Structure formats: structure tokens, C-alpha cells
Amino acid sequence: MKKRLAVILVLSIFLLTSCTSTDKQLNTGTNETATTTTTNQNPVEKTAVPTLFIHGYSGNEHSFGGMIQRLEVKGEAKKELILTVSNDGQISAEGSLSGEKDNPMVQVLFEDNKNNEWNQAEWIRSALVYLKEQFQVEKINLVGHSMGGVSSLRFLGAYGQDASLPAVEKFVAIGAPFNEFDETPNMESVTNELKNGPINKSGRYQEYQQTVANIPASVDVFLIGGQLSETDLSDGTVPLASALAVNALLSQNGNRVQTEIIEGQEAQHSQLHENLDVDKLVGEFLWETQK
């Protein structure tokens, strides 16, 4: 009986060790990229490049709070810092950047969360100036939902060539009304718009046309739009055509652009950043070493 218990104990220890070993981070040294592997998931590239999450109109800490938490629980990234930007561009910080290769996430909150995209673009710049001065950050990623995506692209068009700021490596826009709220005309398909750009061009889109040359071609872009049904080509707020409107414009500028259409009721505008499929897509685009 004692011998049988000893065998069971040895087997239990062996199984426990095997199950936990796959989640350990591989230490590759200070000058290399660290990689972690999680079950049923491609290897995740770990760097010290911060990813900034920019909320939409009337957004707050809850807007991206769930996605940030889920990405952290999955072991893909780590929330390290919250930056709140006042109307005059002053920064209040909660937390700090560690400098560790843990895919740090930075949540950016606008004190005036209903202001316009031009002021928000200036506030994004203020956040980047702070990161450069306080933490010597040289590169970042941007993730914006709705107006946060609009303001992020506005920032890139205004300050994309400013060498004094951290360079943007990757930009994700989720449900962003780049062509305002113009829908695809009856004579145009979404496929054609992706290739050639929209037929009807809003004032916002035309301004993007004027500033797109300022966006470095090295910025990789991911556009995500929602489609509620076969007859409702929108996320209930932003037309699908508008969320994908800048695909051709950025592609012609030399940027590598990916697009994704999220379908069904979970593609509703305010649910896009709560959608687990969107979590997966964002994580893959930003951090996975294999696709």
C-alpha cells in the first residue's frame, strides 16, 4: 500500500511540473526579445515597446479596461501605466513603465472626453512627449476605438514625421468613422472601396488625403469594422465603409494595411472592444511572431 502511494505521489509531481512549465517566460537576455508560449496560441513576442490604448468619444477607464485586463490575463501583455491628459495637455500618471520586455500597455484617458479630434491629436502628442521625457521611449503602438482611432490617425498625419517623438510602429483602429458616417453608396461595394477608396468623401476624409504623406510608410495598420447583419452594413453607429475607408489611401502611401470585418450582434459599436475575437486579432497583430 505504501509503495502504491509513493508511485501516485511521484506521478502527481511529474504531471504538475509538466503543466506549469509551458507558461514560463524564456529568459533570452537583456539585448534580445523574450518569448512566451501559451496553450493553443502562437508564440508571443515580448518587447519593451509600449502600446497606447485611446478611448472613443465620451470614453473612460472602462472603455478599454476589459480588453487590457483580458490581454494581461492571457499573458500577452502587462498593464503598467495610466496617463490622464488635461485640456491644456498636462499629464497625470498612475503607475510607471518598468522597461521590462513584457509588452507594456498604457491606457490614455482624456479629462475632457467629448472634445474634438484635433485637440485629442494634440493630447496624444502630449502623452508621447511625456513617455519620451520620463521613460526615454523610442517606439510605441497605438490602438484606438471609434473617435480614438480618428484622433490617432489625425495625430499621425500631423506629427508622424516628428523625429523628437517616439515612432509609431503599429496602429489598430476599431470601429473608427474615418469617412464620418457616410455609408457605401448603392453603386459601390465595400470590396471596391477597399481597393479604390470611397466615392463620397467627407471633409474628414479629404483632410486625411491632404496629410497622409506625413504618415511614415513604416507604420503597419490594422482596420477593424463591424457588420451587424447581411442587411445592416454597420456596427449600429459607424458604417462598415467608414471604418475601412482609409485602406486604399494608406496602402497607396506605402503602409501595410490589414482589414477585418467582425459580424453578428457582438459587432455592435460599443461591444467591439469587448469582443473576444477582437482581443485575439489585436493580440496577433501587435505581438504574435507567427500568423
Automatic annotation (TrEMBL):
Domain of life where this protein originates: Bacteria
Pfam families in the cross-refs: DUF915
UniProt-listed InterPro entries: AB_hydrolase_fold, DUF915_hydro-like
Signal sequence segment: 1-23
Keyword Signal annotated: yes
Keyword NAD among record annotations: no
Keywords from the named record: Signal
Descriptive protein name: Lipoprotein
Organism: Enterococcus phoeniculicola ATCC BAA-412
